[in-house]
Structure formats: structure tokens, C-alpha cells
Amino acid sequence: MEPAELLAQLPLLAFQAALLFARLGAAAMVLPGLGEEEVPASIRLGLGLGLVLLMFPLLAPALPAPPDEAGEAVRLILIEVIVGLWIGGLARLVVIAMAVAGQAIALLLGLAQAMVPDPALGAMGTATGRLLSLAAVVVVLGTGLYVIPLRALVESYAVLPAGDPFPAGAGAEVFAVAAGESLALSLRLAAPFVLAAIVINVALGLLARIAPQVQVYFVAVPGQVLAGVALLAVIMPPLLGVFAEAARDAFLILPGLR
Fold it and tell me: Is the pLDDT of residue 80 over 80?
């Protein structure tokens, strides 16, 4: 391409790159594994720019030309940001399920008072919640599952072309369903600890009835914690396997891949 032709095409290329960055960059800020709060925002934005450079030759033909009005250009960019956050948020809900399961496990183990900063939940969280949220990130990155949401982002231009209105109603419905499935996954992951907590509390109730003179509370707390930690050590490998399978299934039905 001649320099004069390149200069003539520069406004078009710049607007298309901005549209592409709006969707890919917004998604990169929240994608599991790649958009963690521990990763500085500058690195996440740099990842978004890298995705733009990588995908621009492939996706540029499907991107619209810059409109004549500035307001219309802003509207198009905002729509792309919403789409990117929506797709990234759908993938993020799977990882949040591990953090929620960890919160429930801590409550059942009697460790709910041991609070640590948890960026995954945006506030203070329990030690087991933080442990499981970090384990989820390790699984996503270590098994290569992070590639599936990136592929969904690229394929999303076939079902949600740049410049088309965002289907807010359908998008909210899909997000609500994904949130429900995330909660169901967290309950499945915490199910062994729910059963253990029921057994322990029933046993302690029987002990309190049989031997009222025993200080059940002082016996129960350390015993419950020790039993729960031992159960967590035994359950952790299959728990991560269940999460990896559920995450793969959830990622494969992201918009653009289903």
C-alpha cells in the first residue's frame, strides 16, 4: 500500500482498531485467569492491545466504517464495551463459583471469622474462599481453559457483529441463567462439607443429650476445624477436577461457540 493510500485509510483503521479494542480490552479486564484483580490494570490493558494487534487483520473486514457523527461513534464504542464485559462476565461467573463454595466451606468448618482480603469477591473473604478462588485461576491457566473464552470473543463477531444493537433482554436472561448455574456449581462443590457438617452437628447434639456435663462447644470447635481441614485435603483433587470439567462445559457454551 502506498503512503498516500495508507494516510487516506488511517481514520478508518484507527476507528476499527478502537472498536476492536473496546470489546477485546473490556473482556480482558474480567476474563478468568487473564483479568484477575492481582494483575495490574496496565498489564490487562496491554493484553487487550496485544489481542487487537493479533486479531485486527482477521476481523477488520467485518468492522463498520466510522460514522459521520461523533455521538454515533461513541454509541458504537459503548456497545462494544458492553459486549466485551458481558462475555467476560459470563466466563468470570464460573470462577466466582469456587470463591462462593470456599465461603460456604469456611462457614461449615467454623472458619468464617478468619477473614482475608479477597479481590475475587470485592471485599474481605474467608481463607478457604481465597484458597479456592486462587486454585480456580491455577486450573484455568494450567489446563489452557483460558483459550476457550478468547476464542468465544473472536467468534462473537459472527453472532454479535460490531455496530449492531446489543440485545439487552436476551443478554440479561443469559446472564441470569449463568449466575444460577454458577450458584448451583458452588453448592455441588461444597456438598461434601454440608454432609460432614450435618453429621458432626448431629453427633454433637447427641453428645450434649447423653453427657450434659461435657462442654460440647469447647470440644466441637477444634474438632470441627480439624475434621474439616482433613476433609478438604482429601477432597481437593477431585474438587478441582469437577471444577475443571464444569468450567470447560460453561466456556464452550459462551456466545459465539454454542
Answer: yes
